[in-house]
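Batch job 17 of 40 flagged for manual review because the log was empty.
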Amino acid sequence: MRTEFPGFRLGKVLATSFTATLTERQGDPVERIPMPCRLVDWLAVSGLAVDSCTAAEFDLARELRESIHAAATAGALQEALPEGAVRIINDRSVQGRAAAVLTAEGERRWRLGSPSRVEDALSVIAADAIGILAGERDGKLALCASPTCRAAFFDTSQSRSRKWCDMNTCGNRQKKARFNANQRRNAD
């Protein structure tokens, strides 16, 4: 079973895709993972299927998500990483039992412990965040130019000049607003 997340497109960067499960952070926030069962669904879509999720594990996941967002925002602004966020990311990274495995097609997949626990999946997400924040991946942390969004994203475009976290949502919304403003100006 594949669960869809309206208004959310899973990106190639696991850590910032995870932070994008809370959108419109500067406007009316939209929570894409409002309950533990939705976290289980999101993890499955992300290739990190877990058996179940308790309320305590759900709280750990949200804490990690917000820590990654805080650290990625600081990184995008070239500010010092928040100590508390770094501590939480590191704690989640070492608490899981996940291993990278190579598929026959030459792709990396993650194998979680048995039974598959939320902590294992969170360790993979935290490790991805560490790689991004440490500058180990080719790309640049950036913040969405939408004044209501301001999501942190990892820009892997050739020019590293992407403005929007997602062109299909924030980018189109801003282009439409600009078009409508021009239409009103021309009508006057």
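Reviewer: the log was empty due to a logging misconfiguration, but the result itself is present. The radius of gyration is 18 Å. Unflagging and moving on to job 18.
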